[in-house]
Amino acid sequence: MENDRIVKRIELKAPVSRVWKALTDHEEFGEWFRVKLDGPFVEGQVSRGNVTYPGYEHLRWEAVVQRMERERMFSYTWHPYAIDASMDYSNEVPTLVEFRLEPRGDGTLLTVTESGFEQIPLARRAKVFAAGLEKAWDFLGGANGQAAPWRPAAASAGRC
Predict the structure, then answer these.
(1) If pLDDT is split at 50, 70 and 90, which confidence band does 128 have?
(2) What residues make up the domain containing 55?
(3) CATH number, domain containing residue 14
(4) Confidence label for 102 from pLDDT (cuts 50, 70 and 90)
C-alpha cells in the first residue's frame, strides 16, 4: 500500500554515538518529542510519560520498545496521534517506528520509518499520516524550536 509508511533520511553532522544518545536517552528523547518520560527505555517494556506539547499536557504518551541495537537501531510501537482523551486506542494495531543509524564519514545517516498505517481505522488514517510526517520532520530538522544536537547536511523524505 502506497500510504502505509513514512520514510525520512537525513545526514547529520554528528557521530553515531551522539545521535544514538539523542534518540535513546529518555530525557533527550522527551525534549525532542515533547514528552516527559517516567524512566529510561528498556527493550520489551512499555515506556510512558506525560505529553508536554502546549495544549496537550493532559495526555499520556505510551510506546512499547521493540528493539535497541546499540548505535544501530531503535524501534518502538505506539498509537500515533492519540489525542482524544475520551477514546480507547487499545483496540487499534499500533504503528512501528524505526530509527536506523549508519556511519557516514564524520557523521550519521539517520533513517526514520513509521509503518503500519493501513491498520489504522480509515476515519483516523489521513490525520495520523499527516501528523506523522510533521513530527518526523520536526524531529529531524529541529523545527519544534529546540536546538538540534546536530546540524542537517542533507535531508530527503518520501512515502514507500
Answers:
(1) confident
(2) 2-159
(3) 3.30.530.20
(4) very high
Strand partners, 103: 108
Tell me: pLDDT of 154 over 60: no
Higher pLDDT, 113 or 157: 113
pTM of the predicted model over 0.90: no
What is the domain count for the chain?
1
The length of the chain in residues reads: 160
